[in-house]
Amino acid sequence: ECFETMLEAEVAEARAIAVELLPHNSAGKRDGTWHVKISPHSKPPKVGLARVIKDDKSAYLGPFSIRVARVLLDALRDALPIHRCSRPQSCRGCISEQMGRCPGARSEQHRASVSAAADSVVHDPGVILEPLATRMRVLAEQERFEEAAEVRDRGALLERTLFRLAQVNALVQAGRVVIQVGSRQIAIDRG
User: Fold this and answer.
1) Looking at the predicted structure, is the pLDDT value of residue 76 above 80?
2) E strand intervals along 40-148
3) Which of 25-29, 66-70, 170-174 is predicted with the least confidence, judged by mean pLDDT?
4) SS3 151
5) Which of 74, 67, 30 lies closest to 48, judged by CA?
6) Whose CA, among 61, 113, 140, 148, lies 20 to 30 Å from 55?
């Protein structure tokens, strides 16, 4: 088949791979995708990793490899005081709380931080990007350059992720987009 644009060729290739993926090529392989899940409405509110997206009023970032998802999770936890432990209801006096990076037993502060994270993913990325920039500057001023570089890299990944999410959401919300390429039209419905 002959394609007039790269977009048409790439879409056709992706479809062919999905259709022709033989069972023996995929046997024993797990789908390596993970999502960062921000759940301000759960009890207790949580920020963690999830394998699948559910219709549960949570904000999701992804899909990513487990490594990238963990880096993004760390970036969110660097930006806002969000529990780092698996049992936040019993979190008292952990090292992260002593360092001011975990709200500990202050459940209302944790709830507010998780809500701010969810809102910033959708509406205002500055809420989570600005604290990361501030933390990076403070670490650099303290001559803790390796830590500053880690925060910088996590923040840059989070910024790229949020920018990409905004692009995808804009395309989905646009409904139908028609692109004219020469004499051909390419229609994209809801992204």
Assistant:
1) yes
2) 46-50, 59-64
3) 25-29
4) helix
5) 74
6) 113
Q: Is 41 helix (H, G, I), strand (E, B) or coil?
A: coil
Range from 15-19, 84-88, 130-134 carrying the lowest mean pLDDT: 84-88
Q: Residue 154: in which H helix or E strand, if any?
A: helix 145-173
* Sequence-distant (≥ 6) Cβ neighbours of residue 45 within 8 angstroms: 39, 110, 111, 114, 115
Collapsing DSSP to helix, strand or coil, 98 comes out as: helix
The edge-to-edge listing of strands for the beta sheet with 59-64 is 46-50, 34-39, 59-64
Token digits of residue 107: 């459940």
For tokens 């644009």, name the residue.
5
Partnered with residue 184 across adjacent β-strands are 181
- Determine the Cα–Cα distance for residues 70 and 73; give it in Å rounded to an integer: 5
Enter the tokens of residue 158: 């989070």
Nearest to 79 by CA among 146, 152, 143: 152
pLDDT at 30: 55
pLDDT tens string 37-46? 999 998 888 8
Residue 183: its pLDDT value, please? 87
Q: Tokens for 79, please give them.
A: 């930006």
CB 9 within 8 A of CB 76: no
Check: CB of residue 157 under 8 Å from CB of residue 145.
no
Q: Report yes or no: 90 and 44 within 8 Å, Cβ to Cβ.
A: no
